[in-house]
Amino acid sequence: MRKFTLALTLGVLTAAPALAQDITFTSADAELMVACTDATLESLHADDAQGASAAPLRDCIGAASGPCMETDEGMTTIGMTECLARETDWWDSQLNVDYAALREVLDEDSAEALQTAQRAWIDWRDAKCEFEYTFWADGTIRSIYYGSCVLDLTAERAIDLKTYVGWGEL
Q: How many domains are contained in the chain?
């Protein structure tokens, strides 16, 4: 029985990257993220930031996953991984909206170049985060490092795409 439990536990932990992709953000997550991004944008507009980069939006990375990890459910390895995955899902949804909007306004050559770049970025993100996962192979922390990597890189890419289409009226 103990071998079965150990095997099941190891199976769940090693499947963490695959499981994380099935987790979606909650309405509470979305409210936290929108509040952060809206406040950041209002601050940028108040400072007459026309043409400014969206760099301050990077401060919003963790706006939902941080509070999630402070809950009882978020204080376990699995809970932390789920918190990271939920926020990643929110950033990924923003990335997809802006990617589609950007493709609509680009000429054919630029749209094709964007698609090539996006595919290369996905491959790079996945390879980089897989390295994080395998590097920390001797501990359960690996799923947290993996989740943090995917969150950070997805958020950064979403923000980068946002600078091309403008978030609000940047």
A: 1
In a domain, 170, yes or no: no
- CB-CB contact of 22 with 81 (8 Å): no
Query: At a CB cut-off of 8 Å and minimum separation 6, what does 101 contact?
Result: 165
Query: What do you get for the CA distance between the two ends of the chain, in Å?
Result: 59
Instruction: For residue 72, count other CB atoms closer than 10 A to its CB.
Output: 7
Q: Is 75 exposed, middle or buried (0-12, 13-18, 19+ CB in 10 A)?
A: exposed
Residue with tokens 């932390």: 80
Q: What is the pTM of this model?
A: 0.80
Res 56: pLDDT: 86
Q: How many Cβ atoms from other residues are within 10 Å of residue 65's Cβ?
A: 27
- Does residue 140 lie within any of the structural domains? yes
In angstroms, the CA 20 to CA 143 distance is 9
Are 130 and 116 a contacting pair, CB within 8 Å? Answer: no
Residue 160 identity (one-letter amino acid): D
Q: Give me the domain span that covers residue 115.
A: 2-165
DSSP 55: G
Weakly modelled stretches of the chain, pLDDT under 70 = 1-21, 44-55, 167-170
